[in-house]
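User: Let's play a game. I give you a shape written as tokens, and you guess the letters that built it. Ready? Here's round one.
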């Protein structure tokens, strides 16, 4: 009886799409690829793939990210499910979208080139296939909300960074200019952001002091507050 219940219902493909953000040239960027197969061959797309029989949806998203960037243990969050009947002209496909935040200095460039992928400014995106632009817009809004309460933005920075770099990052995330004095006052209140002994001399001879995020301290503070 139970078996018949499943048989008489339709079967669909389940896929994942990864919205991969990076911080590059003072701008928020998105990793896109030129699709190498039909439908929509040659057009810009997010990196995606089908969920396999032996993996969860979360594991499929992690696998797709690994195959494209060579990265593991990356910040990822589910955006939602996209299931319009005609969203994919190839077959009936339900896709679960995830966004990921990576450091642009860490990924495997050979893998990215193999997949014909390129970075694009988030505010100057080319036309994307299917409903991918909807996924991107939803992911960006979720990232903005999360960045206001949790330090997820640090995933986009190198381990050591200047306060100017940190401010430019958050300006890129929110899409607006932040008051320098107020921003630094807020940073000073974050006990998990620590000054190092190193300086960055790429922009001036005097150099700017480098900071780092103490993740262990942040987790302790968060646990105490909860």
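Assistant: Ready! My guess for every position:
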């Amino acid at each position: 009886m139970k078996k018949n219940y499943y048989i008489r219902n339709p079967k669909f493909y389940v896929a994942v799409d990864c919205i991969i953000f990076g911080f590059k040239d003072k701008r928020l960027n998105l990793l896109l690829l030129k699709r190498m197969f039909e439908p929509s061959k040659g057009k810009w797309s997010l990196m995606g793939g089908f969920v396999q029989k032996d993996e969860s949806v979360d594991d499929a998203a992690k696998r797709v990210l690994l195959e494209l960037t060579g990265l593991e243990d990356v910040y990822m969050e589910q955006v939602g499910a996209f299931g319009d009947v005609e969203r994919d002209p190839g077959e009936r496909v339900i896709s679960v979208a995830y966004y990921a935040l990576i450091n642009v200095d860490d990924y495997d460039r050979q893998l990215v080139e193999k997949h014909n992928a390129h970075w694009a400014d988030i505010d100057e995106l080319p036309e994307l296939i299917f409903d991918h632009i909807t996924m991107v817009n939803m992911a960006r809004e979720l990232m903005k909300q999360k960045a206001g309460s949790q330090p997820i933005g640090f995933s986009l920075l190198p381990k050591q960074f200047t306060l100017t770099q940190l401010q430019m990052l958050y300006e890129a995330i929110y899409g607006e200019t932040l008051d320098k004095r107020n921003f630094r006052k807020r940073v000073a209140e974050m006990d998990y952001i620590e000054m190092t002994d190193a300086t960055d001399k790429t922009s001036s001879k005097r150099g700017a002091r480098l900071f780092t995020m103490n993740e262990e301290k942040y987790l302790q503070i968060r646990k105490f507050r909860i």
